[in-house]
Amino acid sequence: MSDPSAASRPVQAVVLAGGQGSRLRPYTDDRPKPMVEIPGTGTPIIGHQLSWLADEGVTDVVVSCGHLAEVLQKWLETAELPVSVTTVVEPEPLGRGGGLKYAAAHLPHPDRPWYATNGDIWTRFSLRDMADFHAERDAVATLALARPRLPWGAVQTDGFGRITDFIEAPPSTFEINAGVYVFSPEFAGLLPHRGDHERTTFPHLARERRLAGFTIPQGSYWRAIDTAKDLTEAAKELAALGR
């Protein structure tokens, strides 16, 4: 028996893989950030992402390249990939929103919804559930939300100002943009040709109540790989999870 919600789930995605990755040097001296491997995983970040997208029903992916684009393109050409991949390189710097718009123009199904993910995210959760959440709310865009652990220890106090406990790296009390998205077909037309959509398109949609936030389920793994410390922490966490 077919699932009626399956028709509204994306089968295409954009991976934004053009960042400089300056805070990950020296790992990014000879490769773009998505090509960095978390020790012990045996695969670069983008390899994990493409596998995850394929597991979630995606068949076509547009990878937006930038820094050391030729290194990423060569790997994509020679690796055994579970999805069909097209690479694009911006003709000039277009900003985050412009770059997303440029990449989206190369998706094979412009009249269908699509996923997008930042190229430095290592996570696993149900994109199908996120797509259903997006459709149920008639959203134009849905952001995955994460509650990362703070990099510092926290202090608990009582009402009188006495310290009662120390908590090592507690979860943030705020949710953050986790860098994974579901977009309806019309979203690409709302993006700026140049500039940052997070300062223009997203606030506009929020005012119209057409922007949704999907909280990544508790127990699902999520980490943005920004620094060498993130690599080390991710390796420890994934080893502890047996992944």
From TrEMBL:
Residues 13-239 form the Nucleotidyl transferase domain. InterPro entries: Mannose-1P_guanyltransferase, NTP_transferase_dom, Nucleotide-diphossugar_trans. It comes from the Bacteria. It holds the Pfam family NTP_transferase. This is NDP-sugar synthase. It comes from Streptomyces iakyrus.
